[in-house]
UniProtKB/TrEMBL annotation:
Gene Ontology CC: one annotated term: U2-type spliceosomal complex
Keyword Ubl conjugation tagged: no
Regions annotated as coiled coil: none
GO terms of biological process kind: translation
Protein name: 39S ribosomal protein L22, mitochondrial
Residues in the signal sequence: none
Domain of life, source organism: Eukaryota
GO molecular function term, any single one: structural constituent of ribosome
Highest classification ranks of the organism: Eukaryota, Metazoa, Ecdysozoa, Nematoda, Chromadorea
Alphabetical list of Gene3D superfamilies matching this protein: Ribosomal protein L22/L17 (3.90.470.10)
Family the UniProt entry places it in: Belongs to the universal ribosomal protein uL22 family.
Keywords assigned: Ribonucleoprotein, Ribosomal protein
Any one Pfam family match given in the protein's UniProt record, by short name: Ribosomal_L22
Length: 422
């Protein structure tokens, strides 16, 4: 990381060729390679602990004097840069600077002064002008950072979206570039040291809404940069080990001739169960299969198919048993015919047993069902009518007019007669 920051600082100054040539041509004693005598080989955890210390903040006066790095790279001809946004004027990383890092040649067995470790081989690769959001790509880059390149490709393929497909294709191209151009024999032994997007340009457009309303659109294009480094990544970026699973080492020979394998306890139990079922099935087949009679088949033996889920095979049975089963089926058919014989005879009989005269049927009124429907309402109305009669008679008795009383009683009697007639 410090090397990359130093290169970016060099590219941002005006005396870039002079500084690079001075670094590459230095003859100071500090530039000599440290002796390998007494060096202790460190494991992955110790290496990443020391690399993590480099990110801690430190005052400039407390920094150690780092000797200039020894490397060779071709001079950048700045006088040929006529573009408006040249790498010298533009801040940050761009595609030309990223290609320039790939041209740096380090001495063999070079030891990095900051870490005291040999310089690992690196591959710089990028893809430019991708129509995608830089914020969405940033999450993908942070996900695969410091992850093994093969593991990163597998994890990215689990989620099929535009960003993951672009990043997985970029990592595959970087692996191929490491083998073909940089002659790294085992590209799978590399991890993603850096991955980040940078916004390149924005194309503005318009979008039409309802009622002729217009809105701005911004099409963002980005460059995605990747740096692969040879070595093992930190352990916290790998897969977690299985818990509460006793790993046992079994050396066995399968019937199919497979090699010894490493199985868990659950897989071992499942394998033993499959073996027992296979042996049980073979025993059943041996018991039920007929014995060979000098290559001649017995004519008295027929084929009988059993439709059972636990015994889906064809069984040969003697013809005598088959004939007995057919006779039983015929007997059952005759029993069914005897049971329905009486019903068949009744259906064929066309004699008339009893005649019915239409005139003897009791006539019904047309509105008999209507009266039944309104019977409850008519009962309420009848009570109110009787109450009205009583009230009318009481009023006429109080007035003392006997003629009016007689006419009221007669009118009530006539109403009752009319209802009875209906």
């Amino acid at each position: 990381m410090f090397c990359l920051q130093l290169k970016q600082r060099l590219f941002s100054c005006s005396a870039l060729p002079r500084l690079i040539s001075a670094c590459s041509a230095s003859t100071s004693n500090k530039d000599k390679l440290p002796s390998k005598v007494g060096q202790v080989k460190k494991n992955s955890d110790e290496i990443w602990k020391e690399r993590g210390k480099l990110a801690l903040p430190k005052l400039q006066r407390d920094e150690d004097q780092i000797p200039p790095k020894r490397y060779w790279v071709e001079d950048w001809k700045l006088e040929t840069e006529d573009e408006k946004y040249s790498p010298l004027k533009e801040y940050g990383t761009n595609t030309k600077k990223w290609d320039y890092y790939s041209k740096v040649i380090w001495p063999p067995n070079y030891v990095v002064p900051e870490t005291g470790l040999p310089k690992a081989r690196e591959v710089f690769h990028y893809v430019n002008s991708i129509h995608y959001s830089p914020k969405r790509m940033w999450y993908i880059c942070q996900f695969i950072r410091r992850m093994n390149v093969d593991e990163a490709i597998k994890q990215l393929m689990f989620k099929k979206n535009k960003g993951t497909i672009i990043m997985s294709g970029l990592l595959k191209e970087a692996k191929k570039l490491a083998k073909d151009k940089f002659y790294i024999s085992n590209p799978s032994n590399m991890f993603v040291a850096e991955a980040f997007p940078i916004q390149k340009f924005i194309v503005k457009g318009m979008r039409r809404h309802a009622h002729d309303r217009m809105a701005k659109r911004r099409f963002r294009y980005i460059d995605v940069f990747v740096r692969l480094e040879e070595g093992s990544p930190p352990d916290y970026k790998g897969r977690e080990k299985l818990l509460n699973v006793n790993i046992v080492y079994l050396v066995f020979l399968m019937d199919d001739g497979q090699e010894p394998q490493q199985l868990s306890e659950l897989e071992q139990n499942a394998l033993n169960r499959k073996r027992r079922l296979r042996q049980f099935r073979s025993q059943l087949q041996e018991e039920e299969a007929p014995r060979p009679n000098d290559g001649q088949e017995d004519e008295s033996v027929g084929m009988f198919v059993t439709f059972r889920s636990y015994k889906p095979i064809d069984i040969k049975v003697p013809k005598e048993i088959e004939v007995k089963k057919e006779e039983e089926e015929h007997k059952q058919m005759f029993l069914i015919e005897e049971k329905i014989q009486s019903q068949l005879e009744d259906a064929l009989d066309s004699t008339v047993k009893e005649t019915v005269d239409v005139t003897t049927l009791a006539p019904r009124k047309i509105d008999w069902d209507l009266k039944r429907a309104i019977q409850d309402k008519m009962a309420i109305l009848e009570r109110r009518t009787q109450k009205a009669y009583a009230q009318l008679i009481r009023e006429r008795l109080e007035s003392g007019n006997t003629d009016l009383l007689a006419s009221a009683v007669n009118s009530a009697a006539r109403v009752d007669e009319y209802q009875d007639e209906e």
